[in-house]
Write a structure and sequence with these properties.
The protein has 342 residues and is of the alpha+beta class. The protein has three domains: 163 residues, Reverse transcriptase/Diguanylate cyclase domain (Alpha-Beta Plaits, 2-Layer Sandwich), CATH 3.30.70.270; 54 residues, DNA polymerase, domain 1 (Orthogonal Bundle), CATH 1.10.150.20; 100 residues, DNA polymerase, Y-family, little finger domain (Dna Ligase, domain 1, 2-Layer Sandwich). 39% of the residues lie in helices and 24% in strands. It is built from 13 helices and twelve strands. The chain has a five-stranded mixed beta sheet with strand order 5-6-1-7-8. The longest helix has 21 residues. The two termini are 40 Å apart.
Length: 342
């Protein structure tokens, strides 16, 4: 029997800030953008106190401010969050070398070969993370990644949930269908239209009807996932498909110098990352979003893979020449793809 553990840090960015600045504890804390709710940007993380006001990730900072003007708004500090995340991931690898890193604040572990009860392993992880970082996490354990991820969200914060095969009907099926991994707001709305609101209701649907509504691949996924079935392995190593950076201007601009400077800075950031990961890229893509939200992309494929800042910056500007700057620009992005390992 496989035993897969999913760990999810509790309100990670906000928790790191509260550890650094204890006076934040108990207050509604919102992390996002530059930390100024009057400027453009979205919520990256909200503390549990802030969530009580309806604040959530990916929400515009201005909306968060309207919901809770007294909240403490802070800028994103990826450098510090990455530092703490690395401490956590190093601890997890000491528990089990079979780890899938799925984000700065979460991971899967295969604990099948560890000769200890699941609860004991989870409590050891919680204890060590708290000792080393002062933070709490929520853990879910099940026979596969799908159920483990659902379980880790069931008793937040500082939760531990173990789901067995015989628990699926009583504990998983009553949950809203949105709790199912891979079901977003659009799918949720489509399912509601055909009378499906819970995972159990989805599990009772015939396969042919799901395929008819959602296509063969996704229909089959929904059919299997609703029954708690998932054979996907842990991916312990992956090759990046792309590296990108983008920025939204605080005020839409048609100032050529600002646009050019931004492209140059973004190009340097993506080059720094691919050099750090020891890759070279061949295709450079420029993304431009105008004030009317229309978005254009242009790409240039080089003769040879490169990590030269001059080559990549020049390619980005060559792409810019193929976009007519007829309106003010809202967003600029630079992406590199088609990698080759150095």
């Amino acid at each position: 029997m496989r035993r897969i553990l999913h760990i999810d840090m509790d309100a990670f960015f906000a928790a790191v800030e509260e550890k650094r600045y204890p006076w934040l504890r108990g207050k509604p804390v919102v992390i996002g953008g530059s930390g100024d709710p009057m400027q453009r940007g979205v919520v990256s993380t909200a503390s549990y106190e802030a969530r009580k006001y309806g604040i959530h990730s990916a929400q515009p900072l201005r909306t968060a401010y309207k919901l809770c003007p007294e909240a403490v708004f802070l800028p994103v500090d990826y450098e510090e969050y990455s530092r703490v995340s690395q401490i956590i991931k190093n601890t997890l690898k000491e528990i089990s070398p079979v780890m899938e890193d799925v984000g700065i604040d979460e991971a899967f572990l295969d604990i099948s070969e560890i000769d200890k009860p699941s609860e004991e392993i989870a409590q050891e992880i919680k204890k060590r993370i708290t000792e080393e970082t002062g933070l709490t996490c929520s853990i879910g354990i099940a026979s596969n990644k799908l159920l483990a991820k659902i379980a880790s969200d069931m008793q937040k914060p500082d939760g531990l949930t173990i789901i067995k095969e015989e628990d699926i009907e009583s504990r998983i099926w009553p949950l809203p269908v949105r709790k199912l991994w891979g079901v977003g707001p659009k799918t949720e709305e489509s399912l509601k239209k055909i009378g499906i609101r819970t995972i159990g209701a989805l599990a009772s649907m015939p396969l042919d009807r799901l395929v008819e509504n959602f296509g063969e691949s996704y229909g089959n996924y929904l059919y299997e996932a609703s029954k708690g079935r998932d054979e996907s392995p842990l991916v312990t190593h992956w090759e990046p498909k792309s590296v990108s950076r983008e920025t939204t201007f605080q005020t839409d601009t048609n100032n050529w110098q600002i646009i050019a400077k931004t492209i140059a800075e973004l190009a340097k950031e993506v080059v720094d990352e691919i050099r750090q990961k020891r890759y070279k890229g061949r295709t450079v893509t420029l993304k431009v979003r105008f004030s009317d939200f229309k978005t254009y992309t242009r790409s240039k494929t080089l003769d040879e893979p490169t990590n030269s800042i001059d080559d990549i910056r020049k390619a980005a500007f060559d792409c810019l020449k193929r976009i007519e700057l007829k309106m003010k620009v809202r967003l600029i992005g630079v992406r590199i793809t088609q990698f080759e390992k150095q």
